[in-house]
Amino acid sequence: MTWLGRLLRGRRLERELERELRDHVERQVADYVAAGMGEGEARRRTRLELGGLESAKEQCRDARGTRLVSDLVQDLRYGLRVLRRSPGFTVVAVLSLALGIGANTAIFNLVDSLILRALPVSDPAALVRLDGSSWTNPIWEEIRARAPQLVESAAACWPTRLDLASGGEAQLVDAFFASGDFFEVMGVPAMLGRTLTRDDDRRGGGAAGPVAVLSYAFWQRHYGGAADAVGRTLSLNGVPVTVVGVTPPGFFGPTVGRSFDVALPIAIVDRLQHNSESWLDARSTWWLDVVARLRPTQTPEAATQALRLVQPQIREATLPPRWRPKDLEHYLREPLAFVPARTGLSEVRGDYERPLLTVMGVVALVLLIACANLASLLLARANARRQELGARLALGASRQRLARQLLAECLLLALPGAALGLLVAQWGSRLLVRQITTQEGLVSLDVSLHWRVLLFTLAVTLATTVLFGVAPALRGTGFSPQDAMRHQGRSVAGEGPGALGGPLVVVQVALSLVLVFAAGLFLRTFTGLATQDLGLDADALLLVSLDSQRSKLPAKELRALFEQIRDAAAALPGVSDAAVSVIAPVSGMGWNNNFRVQGGPTLDDKDSSAWVNAVTPGWFSTYRTALVQGRDVEARDRLEAPPVLIVNEAFVRRFVGTGPTIGRLVEREGRPGQQLPPLEIVGVVKDAVYRSPRDEREPTVYGPIAQLAPEETFPFASLAVRASSGSPALLTQPLAAAIGRVDPRISLTFRLLSDQVGASLMRERVVAMLSGFFGFLALFLAGLGLYGVTSHAVNRRRTEIGVRIALGADAAGVVRLVLGRVGLLLGAGLLLGAALSLWLARFVEALLYGLKPRDPLTLAGAGLVLVAVGLLAAGLPARRASRIDPAQVLREG
Amino acid sequence: MTGEHADLPQGTLDLLILKVVALGPLHGYAIAQRLQQISRDVVQVQQGSLYPALHRLENRGLLASDWKLTDTGREAKFYRLTARGRSRLEEEAESWRRLTEAVGLILSAEGEPS
To answer: pLDDT at residue A721 above 80?
Structure first.
């Protein structure tokens, strides 16, 4: 019979063994009786010769070689019975493990899908990208021409959004423009039709005209998965493009954290966008990502080496015109390099890598605390079970066998914990992805549980079992049976065995302090950002992004168009204010230039830069940004009138220096050789947020939209509308209609400024929320641990306390006695935790705003919180101790 | 049960069991009896170790077993030698003979003056 057969047929084997031995006994007894022995004596003798029936059986069982497994089954069965006897403990243990393991798995799942997982393309390890943010098309064309000498192949792409609607409220789809061989380089075949070709990406358009490749998801959503989608026409930004193919379901595009709907050839970019200068030729429009596939044995370093050899030619051939000499010099010198791109490109990753890793650290600490907590609970139980364990030792169980038994019980807690944890993780990672998704950036991550995540959970579970199971198992068996039987779980004085609970509590307190401190830092960062004075009133303000590329208007009419739209909006009932600006605050967009105030201080190149915005009259009152001096932009500030400027206080502080501000002339830097007329400062406004609430309030200047030069006029603007009462969201319908009457080709996107501000702080909000939640959990667990240990100590020392009370100790004295030890543990934990916090603080520096990572106030606050929790947790058992009735205790003793 | 009892050298129990069973299928009790008879009561098998040894040999595939009706009217577990058991027996017997010869030679050697 095989080993497995013996394992599975254990019960039959057991029966046969019984029969065989009984047969032996009967025969021997019969022989002895035949030889003249009495039956009783014959039986006694036979047993003796066999050395005890049970012991013979045991040895036969050993011979089967299935011992380990059948013992495990027995251990598990016994463990189950033990756990069922104390359901409260079991539930607490399983739930805290489920939370710990679930949180770890959820965060790891995000880390995995955002940072670790390779792109779903063929051989992702061979992908590299051109290091740096983005590249101009001329640079890409130079690289493309040289690609065969440098690498296996190369491609370029640019993710953007396009509008399906041909006017009115925009229906945006996620798109990316790609070079003709992009899909070939990625090794992604078409599932239906074909992917892009080099011919599609020819300047002036390929034989097939403007074409698009759809993602599987978009094909399903937009065409219901129709097989004849290929060949149909799709309108993007008002331009008809022909659908030529669909990619397979797993491919979400080159950017991790975003999904794509349509892919288009780079060569048609100017047809879909109204660019003043063709992006294909523009030498200072930086937009493309460049990726390459290495040759089979090529390293990224070798590819970089090859690239460096041709760098001078690439740079020389693409020199941007009208740049200052020192900028050109920098352009020529800056080295090009290839870096690995196995996991794709991602802006989401850049935003979330550090917060995610920080939160990963936080949840790992929470799991450690949960383990320490369980270990001390199990330890207390092991002490309570000394008698039982002692009895088993006395009956001949080996220490190893007992330790195995205790570990089996841990496994019984860890496995359901892990299973529940996986559920928590599934739910948690979906919730998190929803949390970090904003209107602007839909974060789409494949967060279904991947094999790596399952492996991670398994590893965490096993590590947990060992962590919280080993200490009790070792201690649980580290005594002689006589000791166990003698003590009967009572001692008269001192802590006695079980003091290991102390160090565990110290560790818990220390780790909790770290977490509470971190939570404090992140919460203060977030509230600091959320409650700061933005310099404007973001409530009840509706922003409408205007995109009039399709109107194809000259600059002069464009300026007039924006003013008409403003007037149309202001005339609507329910609108109290309306104004247009080129840049919307907190949109992430920016426009800057170098300035110098006549008679002001001389600033170096870096310091002379200020943010720029162009606005219509009434913009400041619409945003509720206070005018401090002078006047607002007025209707009389036309192109023909003298150019005027309104500046903020930060600008005044840095640029104006001494003397009055109003009436001063400001020079701005144009292109080399270009002489721009100076601008007159006519007003000063309070500092207000420009790009991000995280930025400091920087010098900013505002000019009238009506005075914009033609080369500064773009077909984009932002209309701000303040509702006179009620929610501004109700204004979207009438606004869309009113703007449509001015020009039906304008594409509109609505959003509330308060949402935009909230979205820009989302990273801080999520980190604060998670660390706050886990900090609270840690606090709770630490409190539970302290309570458990104190309460256990009080139970053990009942007799001693009873004697002390009988001898005249008062209640306060008893409380002091109990709390003294807790205080010691708490103090040690706080010291350790403070040291740990100060050491770990530097890792979160980049995530903080407005406070230092080693902020003493936050640390002190965290310490106080822990002391309060500790006193509360230990106070209850201490009070109980002071009420021990000495008479009763002494009677028991 | 007279005469001197010798302890079995380690590992020889298996060899003896294989030899006894080689003569024909036997149940456990009979094997114990036969061992004693053949060795004229010198080798006394600790019965406690007989059954674990039998089970071990069976699990290694050297012995096979069947339940058969016996003269007493009860079923008993009869062990018989498998083909593998037979070749193992030959090997073990051969190496035992070589060992005892060598030991005998050494013991019978005359002391030589050095």
So the answer is: yes
